[in-house]
Design brief:
Structural class: alpha/beta
Radius of gyration: 44 Å
Distance between the termini: 126 Å
Largest sheet: 5 strands, antiparallel
CATH superfamily of the largest domain: P-loop containing nucleotide triphosphate hydrolases
Number of strands: 22
Number of helices: 23
Strand content: 15-25%
CATH architecture of the largest domain: 3-Layer(aba) Sandwich
Length: 602
């Protein structure tokens, strides 16, 4: 009777199976099936769970993997993977017995033993190669684990910790010897084992608040258990802030306005848009000036979209909303360690972010005076130096600045540098107030009504009577298009289907202007120059013409000394002032005081 053993040359497929994998062991008879299982376990492949299968067996588990010794035709239906390790070969002891019986042991003995030993050596080499490869993989996994920005623990079902990393050791203030192989209840008593779905908890370890996520490992080719990840609260908050910053910036980049988005019918706006289109094809610096709510950023984005930089970024900067202490670091970036709280590795500034595109310097009139010199150098040299750095970084950006302030007046007041103004004002563009484009009120109002009513209202005359519409045209709109948009949103909310609103139902800031206009008739009769003169005299013991002329110049009031003399004569004839010879000059009369008091109250 020949003794047969596993052909170890074909067991690689078994060696690749993860620990505790369940398989069917398929053979032709019960006896040989159990012998094969015993031999595989004796050979060292004992980390697999074998279930016998042979023709006639009464019951067996339904498994995805089957291992057979040359009997693939006997594998039951439903098995997804078959590993055939080949027919068992005759054992060397049987071959030695045959050689001895034939008297050939001396002739064949060395050959048989050498062949057997060589087979063993080849098997050992393969096992050694696999061990080396596993060691390399293990080393790589350890490196990956230690480079992770979070602390981790891999815990078996029984609570034994089998994997951790450097972040975890640092959090606990210990080494791997104090963790690996220990029960998690001894290492972290506050962590209870979770055996079902992944959980998120908050715990405190050595004064560090941590978010803990637990992921259950089951049937994934690895040891069943739980992987815990520990992340510091501060890092999560920083990451969330950075994600919001980046995604917001990306969102802005996908919503550039174009000239097609500018709504108008007036000739003055047509000329302005044509001028802006002409500016767009150049790369020169543009200064957009205009009142608040006139669409300065809309024009800036439209110019960018029509320029050769349209595929690049559009980065807006608002000086009015930026803290003075952060302006330089935000615009120019900073190097690592340049100040407390600086991000590791430093950070690029907004000028660098805008490289290849357009940077929009909004509310440039609010830029701090001490910063304007630095900004001037960057505009001139097209280079930035990060805070705490020494290297000059070249930038390729197109600059568009905007302000609602009169920069010439700010220069006269000493609030704005004249050299920066002239550097920015290469291509000047002045956006029009709504008062200057009254014919656009209707088309803009209808546009916003459609927008906020979701096309349920398409025209003003659907919800307002004639007097209310006229009131909209008569109103000055100090907040310009932004204010008009707010008014239309208001009307879509309060509007009632089937009934037109009258002018008293318009927003309060519009209805209040009706009263104001009626009460200002006296101001219109006297003239604003006369009112100015009376106000200056009211708070004094008497003023001369020359001094009044100097005050007018300081306040940019276009009155000469001769015009002031005519105003004083007119005021005297009306009984508002009294003139005195000598240094006392002109003083306000009681009648003049009463007029000013009346105007002030109204």
């Amino acid at each position: 009777m020949a003794r047969r053993v596993i052909n170890h040359r074909h067991i690689q497929g078994l060696l690749d199976l993860p620990k505790a994998t369940e398989v069917l062991l398929v053979n032709d008879r019960a006896e040989t099936t159990y012998q094969t299982i015993e031999q595989l376990q004796a050979l060292g492949v004992n980390y697999i769970k074998y279930y016998p299968f042979y023709p006639g067996i009464k019951s067996y588990p339904k498994l995805d993997i089957a291992v057979t010794v040359g009997e693939p035709n006997l594998v039951p239906h439903g098995v997804k993977k078959v590993i055939n390790i080949g027919t068992r070969q005759i054992d060397i002891t049987t071959l030695a017995d045959i050689a001895r019986k034939l008297g050939l042991i001396e002739v064949l003995g060395d050959s048989l033993s050498s062949h057997y030993i060589n087979e063993i050596i080849r098997l050992l080499n393969r096992i050694n190669d696999n061990a080396k490869e596993m060691k390399v993989i293990s080393s790589r996994l350890e490196t990956v684990a230690n480079c992770l920005p979070v602390a981790i623990l891999y815990v078996k079902k029984d609570g034994t910790i089998i994997v951790s990393n450097e972040k975890m050791y640092n959090l606990l203030g210990c080494s791997d010897k104090d963790i690996i192989g220990k029960d998690i209840k001894d290492v972290l008593p506050e962590m209870a084992m979770k055996n079902s779905e992944a959980q998120v908890e908050v715990i405190v370890i050595r004064d560090n608040t941590l978010f803990v996520t637990s992921n259950v490992i089951e049937g994934r080719g690895s040891e069943d258990g739980i992987i815990y990840t520990f992340e510091e609260r501060e890092k999560i908050e920083r990451n969330e802030h950075e994600i919001r910053r980046i995604t917001t910036r990306k969102a802005i980049r996908t919503k550039y306005y174009t000239f097609d988005d500018i709504v108008y019918v007036s000739k003055s706006m047509e000329k302005l848009v044509e001028k802006a289109k002409t500016f767009a094809v150049t790369d020169s610096t543009i200064l957009i000036q205009g009142e608040s709510g006139t669409g300065k950023e809309l024009f800036a984005q439209a110019i960018h979209s029509a320029s050769k930089r349209a595929s690049g970024p559009f980065v807006p900067v608002n000086f009015a909303s930026m803290p003075v202490s952060l302006i330089e670091s935000e615009l120019f970036g900073y190097e690592e360690g340049s100040f407390t709280g600086a991000v590791k590795g430093g950070k690029r500034g907004l000028f660098e972010e805008a490289h290849g595109g357009t940077i929009f310097l909004d509310e440039i009139g609010d830029a701090p005076l001490e910063f304007q010199c630095t900004l001037l150098r960057v505009i001139q040299e097209r280079q930035v130096r990060r805070v705490g750095g020494i290297k000059e970084i070249p930038i390729d950006v197109r600059i568009i600045a905007a302000t609602n302030k009169d920069l010439v007046e700010e220069i006269n007041k000493g609030n704005f540098r004249s050299d920066l103004y002239y550097r920015l004002n290469v291509l000047p563009l002045r956006t029009l107030s709504l008062r200057e484009r009254k014919s656009d009120i209707l088309v803009l109002a209808n546009y916003f009504l459609k927008k906020y009513s979701k096309n349920k209202i398409t025209s003003l005359d659907e919800i307002l009577d004639e007097n209310a519409i006229k009131a909209l045209f008569d109103y000055d709109w100090p907040g310009n298009i932004r204010q008009l948009e707010n008014a239309m949103e208001y009307l879509t909310v309060i509007g009632v289907k089937g009934r037109k609103l009258d002018k008293t139902e318009l927003p309060e800031y519009i209805t209040a202007s009706f009263v104001k206009k009626e009460d200002n008739i006296l101001v219109d009769i006297l003239g604003r120059d006369m009112i100015w003169l009376l106000k200056k005299l009211m708070n004094s013991d008497g003023l001369g013409r020359r001094y009044l002329a100097e005050l007018a110049k300081e306040e940019n009031i276009p009155l000469t000394e001769g015009q002031i003399r005519n105003l004083i004569n007119k005021a005297k004839s009306l009984g508002f002032v009294e003139t005195n010879v000598g240094r006392q000059g002109t003083v306000l009369s009681k009648k003049g005081q009463s007029i000013l008091h009346y105007i002030g109250n109204r």
